[in-house]
From TrEMBL:
UniProt region (Disordered), positions on chain: 463-491
Keywords (A to Z) from UniProt: Glycosyltransferase, Transferase
EC annotation from Swiss-Prot or TrEMBL: 2.4.1.15
Domain of life: Bacteria
Pfam families (UniProt xref): Glyco_transf_20 (PF00982)
Function: Probably involved in the osmoprotection via the biosynthesis of trehalose. Catalyzes the transfer of glucose from UDP-alpha-D-glucose (UDP-Glc) to D-glucose 6-phosphate (Glc-6-P) to form trehalose-6-phosphate. Acts with retention of the anomeric configuration of the UDP-sugar donor.
Protein name: Trehalose-6-phosphate synthase
Native source organism of the sequence: Paraburkholderia edwinii
Similarity annotation: Belongs to the glycosyltransferase 20 family.
Enzyme class: transferase
Alphabetized SUPFAM superfamilies for the sequence: UDP-Glycosyltransferase/glycogen phosphorylase (SSF53756)
């Protein structure tokens, strides 16, 4: 079996893949270890042009090579901070109101994709399969094809794919979807995402969609599929139990003084519905005086993308809301919302989940939401907490034992909290068992192995006449900044 080449915007470090990172890194690393291969992408460093062009830096861990490159300031601003996170991220999360479009940022996005492709080509072998991840890399396969690469190339979109009416707000939407069609297999988190893509293909690209997700568009044939990302639930359960008596859990327990605990953990992102969540919790305190002083919401939300301006606003909004609600309902010995702006080790989070009575996960839009799955997996089967989950998380389709809410309905969310806080143990157990069965049926290994099986089954493209893997004509046509000059136009 050929090697696996994983490409993602950020590459986990070899240490992170051994457990401290999210499940994705662990899952992908598992596949890399099986076949041997390369994990290629940005190191997370902003560097000089000389250093960037000298890369990639290679680090070996058994049969796996971690290959990373630095980005120049301009690349970072245009590709990462600009088009990826100020255009694609908001639009793909249905927040056109927060999106901007700048031609030079889009040009930078394409330039960096072409440059990354050029760097990767030198590491490729003929029977490798390539698996690219997420919205930073929509044009990556097209850039590899321009370098003469004929290997199988797959893509998995971790975030929602928006309906065409939303997507067409991005001026070069057609060029982006055309680029996406250079992949051999596109994986989505949910049926809704896949349908939205098919809808675009049929109505805007005049392509065809056949049963089995077979798509023909822009002169290309490709496949699409739904692959719901999961977790390893039994490993999480074991981890949560193992650490349940550690000091941090004891400290939290003691400070709660018998109060019920609602736990929320997210990256600080406007897609996660944090302000709406705080307001729903406020509704609970307002409508149910018996819970005042008797329930605490712990919100853990470390800042991300802090140099993108919309992320500064969400931080301010949230601090304001937490302060306002706490001002209204705090007592000398009671703070209703504990809002923590920091990252926690994974094992700590899992043991805190186990200690809580409610997991409150209410994104406005989310590809899957692994926190919801982790929360369920971390529960004590004898006395499980209840998951209150947004209908707009991909996970809602599988976790049917949860209380499903609409995050725009603060009273509805408040009622779900009331119900969860007083739910009898036999109902909690029944709901937990349903959710746990879904997690076990479709764990992270199933996601990864099914996707890779389907990618390996894609018919291979005919090899280029010179048998090139980037050593042929495509790779030699270079502009000054290192991007192939046959990369698509900037806008
Ligand atoms: P994210 O938007 O990052 O992922 P999510 O799926 O919830 O969202 O994954 C977050 C991961 O980070 C979880 O494993 C969680 O435990 C961890 N995490 C969150 N807050 C943390 C904290 N304070 N400290 C430490 N760890 C923390 C994107 C998409 C999702 C999709 C995933 C995977 O937006 O929709 O589910 O990719 O495909």
């Amino acid at each position: 079996m050929g090697r696996l080449i994983v490409v993602s915007n950020r590459v986990a470090t070899p240490t992170e893949t051994k457990g401290s990172a999210g499940g994705l890194a662990v899952g992908v690393f598992g596949a890399l270890k099986d076949t041997g291969g390369v994990w290629f992408g940005w190191s997370g460093d902003v560097v000089s042009e000389t250093v960037a062009n000298a890369g990639p830096t290679l680090e070996q861990d058994g049969a796996v090579t971690f290959a990373t490159v630095g980005l120049t300031r301009k690349d970072y601003d245009q590709y990462y901070r600009g088009f990826s996170n100020a255009t694609l991220w908001p639009v793909f999360h249905y927040r056109n109101d927060l999106a901007r479009y700048e031609r030079d940022e889009y040009a930078g996005y394409r330039r960096v994709n072409a440059w990354l492709a050029h760097k990767l080509v030198k590491l490729l072998q003929p029977d490798d399969i390539i698996w690219a991840h997420d919205y930073h890399l929509l044009p990556f396969a097209e850039a590899l094809r321009a370098e003469g690469v004929t290997n199988r190339i797959g893509f998995f979109l971790h975030i929602p794919f928006p309906s065409p009416q939303i997507l067409i707000n991005i001026p070069p939407h057609e060029e982006l979807v055309k680029s996406l069609c250079c992949y051999d297999l596109i994986g989505f988190q949910t049926d809704t995402d896949q349908l939205a893509f098919h809808d675009y293909i049929e109505r805007h690209a005049r392509g065809t969609v056949k049963p089995g997700g077979n798509v023909e568009a822009f002169g290309r044939k490709l496949r699409t599929g739904v692959y719901r990302i999961g977790v390893f639930p039994d490993e999480i359960a074991e981890q949560a139990k193992r650490y349940e008596s550690r000091q941090h859990v004891m400290d939290l327990k003691q400070s709660l003084e018998g109060r019920k605990l609602i736990m929320s953990v997210d990256r600080l992102d406007y897609s996660k519905g944090l302000v709406e969540r705080f307001r729903a919790f406020e509704q609970l305190l307002e409508r149910s005086p018996e819970w005042r002083g008797n329930v605490t919401l712990v919100q853990i939300a470390p800042p991300t993308r802090a140099d993108v301006s919309t992320y500064q606003h969400i931080r301010q909004d949230l601090e304001y809301e937490a302060g306002r609600i706490n001002g209204r309902y705090s007592g000398l010995d009671y703070t209703p919302i504990r809002y923590l702006n920091q990252r926690y080790d994974r094992w700590k989070l899992m043991s805190l989940f186990r200690e809580s009575q409610i997991g409150f996960v209410t994104p406005l839009h989310d590809g899957m939401n692994l926190v919801a799955k982790e929360y369920v997996a971390a529960q004590n089967p004898d006395d499980p907490g209840v998951l209150v989950l947004s209908m707009f998380a991909g996970a809602a389709a599988e976790l049917t034992g949860s209380l499903i809410v609409n995050p725009h309905d603060s009273v509805g969310m408040c009622e779900a909290l009331q119900r969860a806080l007083s739910m009898p143990v036999d109902e909690r157990q029944r709901r937990y068992e349903m959710n746990m069965a879904a997690l076990r049926k479709n764990d992270l290994g199933v996601w990864r192995d099914t996707y890779l099986r389907d990618l390996r089954a894609v018919p291979l493209m005919k090899a280029a006449p010179n048998g090139a893997h980037g050593t042929g004509a495509g790779a030699s046509r270079k502009t000054q900044d290192g991007a192939p000059d046959d990369a698509p136009a900037a806008s």
